[in-house]
Design brief:
With 197 residues, this protein is mainly β. The chain has one domain. The chain is 9% helix and 28% strand. A five-stranded mixed beta sheet has the order 10-13-14-1-15. It has a five-stranded mixed beta sheet with strand order 2-4-5-9-6. Strand 13 and strand 14 form a beta hairpin.
Length: 197
């Protein structure tokens, strides 16, 4: 199936010595960060990530950092945040974190979680080959591809989550292109035909 060409899925690439992170610390119900839930109210000031000790030589903190929390939690630098903000996506909050290096020193206290809680009902379920979760009938357990309904996308913002697939952050092509043209490190976008739930 051919996808609407103007959307991709957010991802990261840790190649070339770029740091990867362990799951977030000091945040209760951290799973909500990849489910389109606002967390700004009461977000802890000591929220932190630590560099993954399995890769001790990977110490460069890129513009978009990969964590074991997955691609549904964009961790971004100040310059990447500024670029995202210039596209004015609704329902996004920038949650402060500290990234610690392999020696326990601060690697960055300027990166933030770009938490999008703008959820759009835009999936074309019939075209996706979905297996629904038997324990949660509104959750996709697996799918063959991600397919969007073009009729549901009119006016869709530059960055959002899709209903029933909140763990993926979707990005409009013009924002993705601007990120690439700006030379932001660590960012990798997936074509929707290549995304599996």
């Amino acid at each position: 199936m051919t996808q609407p060409a103007n959307y991709v899925a957010w991802g990261t690439s840790p190649l070339g010595g770029l740091a990867t992170l362990l799951p977030i610390e000091n945040v209760s119900d951290a799973y909500e960060l990849s489910e389109g839930v606002s967390r700004a109210d009461g977000f802890p000031s000591d929220a932190a990530y630590r560099m993954n000790p399995s890769f001790p030589r990977d110490v460069v903190v890129p513009d978009a950092v990969q964590s074991r929390g997955g691609g549904g939690i964009p961790i971004v630098s100040p310059r990447l945040r500024e670029l995202i903000e210039s596209f004015d996506p609704p329902d996004i909050e920038y949650l402060p974190i500290t990234i610690y290096d392999h020696k326990g020193r601060v690697g960055s206290d300027e990166h933030v979680i770009a938490n999008s809680y703008h959820v759009v009902d835009c999936l074309d379920h019939d075209a996706m080959g979905i297996v629904w979760n038997p324990l949660d009938p509104m959750a996709i357990m697996t799918c063959e591809r991600v397919a969007l309904d073009p009729d549901a996308l009119d006016g869709t913002p530059a960055l959002f989550r899709a209903k029933n697939l909140e763990k993926r952050v979707l990005v409009r092509r013009d924002l993705a292109d601007a990120i690439g043209e700006a030379g932001m490190s660590g960012v990798y976008f997936y074509e929707l035909d290549d995304v599996r739930a």
